[in-house]
Design goal:
By secondary structure, the chain is mostly helical. Helix content is 63%, strand content 0%. It has 4 helices and no strands. The radius of gyration is 12 Å and the shape is globular.
């Protein structure tokens, strides 16, 4: 049996369901933003794209943790 997903990625199914975009699209948006700081990106996702704080935080944390 597969290990349950933990950390920021555990939010991904609910993010896709609630906002109707695949995670890869959100990550591309984050990477293409001129913003680079974690909380700036979270605030941007919340104000410009209507995400809740937890979902925005999870996407930013997961994206910034990936190798460039």
């Amino acid at each position: 049996m597969a290990e349950p997903v933990k950390g920021p990625a555990s939010y991904f199914p609910s993010i896709e369901k609630k906002y109707g975009r695949p995670i890869a699209e959100w990550k591309d948006l984050i990477r293409s933003s001129p913003l680079t700081r974690h909380m700036e990106l979270v605030a941007w996702l919340k104000t410009e794209h209507g995400l809740g704080h937890g979902h925005a935080n999870a996407l930013v944390a997961h994206t910034l943790a990936e190798p460039a």
